[in-house]
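Fold this complex.
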Amino acid sequence: MSKVCFYFQVHQPFRLRKYSLFDIGKKNDYFEEKKDLKTNNEALFLKVARKCYLPANKIMLQLLEKHPEFKISYSFSGTALEQMEQFYPEVLTSFQSLVDTGRVELLSETYYHSLSFLYSKKEFIEQVNLHNKKLKDLFHYTPQVFRNTELIYNNKIASSIEDLGYKGILAEGWDYILNGRSPNMLYTPKGTKYIKVLLKNYKLSDDIAFRFSNRSWPEWPLTTGKFHHWLSTSGGDSVNLFMDYETLGEHQWEDTGIFDFISKLPNELLKNKNTTFTTPTELVETSPSQGELDVPFLLSWADLERDVSAWLGNKMQQESLKNLYQLEPLIKQSNNKELLDTWRKLQTSDHFYYMCTKWFSDGDVHKYFNPYESPYEAFITYTNTLNDLTLRVKELLQINES
Amino acid sequence: MKVLMFGWEFPPFKSGGLGTACYGLTKGLSRNGVEISFVMPVTPEHAKADFVKIIGANTLFKNVTITEIDSCLTAYTTEEDYDSFDTQRKEIYGKNLFKEVSRFTLAAAQISSQESYDIIHVHDWMTYQAGIIARTLSKKPLIAHIHATEYDRTGNNPNPSIAKIEKQGLDAANLIIANSNFTKKNVIDHYNITPNKIRVVHWGIEEDTPAYHLHFSSPLKKERIVLFLGRITLQKGPDYFLEAARKVLEFEPNTTFVIAGNGDMLPSLMFRTAALGLSQKVLFTGFLMGDDVHKAFQLADLYVMPSVSEPFGLVVLEALKNGTPVIISKQSGVSEVLKHCLKVDFWDLNELVQKIVMVLRNKTLHEELKENGKKEADTFNLDTPAKKIIKIYQEAHYE
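Structure:
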């Protein structure tokens, strides 16, 4: 029996409006850009809702109704869920309808799509709990498998996730960690007992997420028949197709035929009686571990390096993160809800991604996702914003700086 | 491929970017197998280049005494400037700039019938008439290279006679090479030239020279130094630089601003500096050349190019290669190809001020801009533009 496990990431950051040195101490509407479309969170959300979330959800609902075998899973960042509530409640309703079918699994993650694990364990756990609460409130759902921001993973993260009571965790199926083993199997993270790690089959996932519309790709155009053939010869327990949900309609536009492809794929795969669909929790509960997986370094699903250099690679990113997490004791001491929420919104990994200077190798992808003119502009806005927040919290706590 | 090239300046006879560009261009072309005869107005005695045959048009004028090149004969001279030069000089170089251009054009006719070549390549308006004559006589294809339009030089108040020559040259050319999309757009907008005749070739820069390794320092280094380097004229925005300096000093008083260059706005800029009481904080160096340019960059913590209109801006690459981070105007050709720098609209004074302050205050930002900017500038070379130009030659040749 060969299985296919779809997991889609749904995430939107609260982008910072351009914030100047001269705004410090005068303005704190950090996320409230109205004019510049690149940082206008509401306008961007409406756009992605119309291009991706609404049409894709409609297709998914039809597929779930048509094929009793069909299953999918999502992970929502808390910031994306807030934007649905705030900007476009119909999007939330349509996701709720999907979850109501009982064949849609939701994953756990940090509420603010943050890098908190790397900087503050305390903050990390608080954000995981916040996210769980949000899933309970909106979907009456309790997740059992965890995925960290951008699939950032190592042995330690897996251990911590086991300690929090999860059954599974997601990671990139990078050849380097597999030593010739298949990404289509489950493994036991080194140093853990019960938890299992599910790996992304990046080749087949990226055929859809990145190469689907690339006309210079020798396999273009990708048909469901061709993809079915690749899947069926891929071996193992389950082919894990992990990707951003925005792939459907936003990264790959409707006119590439992506919606057509996705809506026909289940029917094509189910022609083979030995193929079925599964979800992370189901896999963890039914498939055995094939042995230990040792990942002592930080692995992610980004760029050619599959490391964390897209967020921590340069000094601007490192300094911003350091200054941000240094503020944690003061922010928490202040006991001020708004300051805490703002500080947490500043933790979203996207802010640091915008400061990435690895332009020459992975240039195109980074540029596409960057609302600022350059990583330096992103850094200037971030630094000024954080300085203003620092002033505000110190003022509240009446800390005088000499 | 043999090319007859008409230019107006060539190192060391230069006053700005055009000479540097022609030097780099001919060096790159010859390295890639192109033979060039370079015709310029004056004696080539001191021109330093073994890769190009330099012909001085003046050697054809029996009645002209040859002296050192005079700075009045530059790509940037306006007719008014030329008129103000003293009488003795004018006797040597002709009564006015147009006369000088006409003399060059006549000489060109003679040279073009003596030399053998496949392509005629001319640089900026002063040489366009020469190119037209050479083409008429030889029937060889004409390439008009445009480094700056009259509209760039004058802030959209063109001298009609120059604009007319510029248009004639651009119209007559088989193909036009613009040094940026910015220049291409100006050519289309102001001269109504069909876009499919224009090819954009961004400038390259010599990979390395000893001047980048002078490790220059000075007692001025006690303070952070912000540099302006360019002609002190409307086009380059030196007045924006001074206004920015005034505001930056409110935030970062331990800063010295250096204004390097010469030009028609220098006196008014100096008066304004004195009137603002900033003479201790804003220093003027006058015209710099050769190693002194590099020394200025090496001394500076930040180079600012606030140009109102900058067809390319080769000097920005020189700054970066000297390890000086840059803030550049978006109204420039170089901003099309450079990523690791800060960019501002020249008129956005607050934005310029905040960026200068941020770079001075934030060591991390300064270091990242410096390191990545240098790496990026080091990817520019002379072969890339040369290869593009050879393709354009072939296109014109086989048309």
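The first helix of chain B runs from residue 17 to 31.
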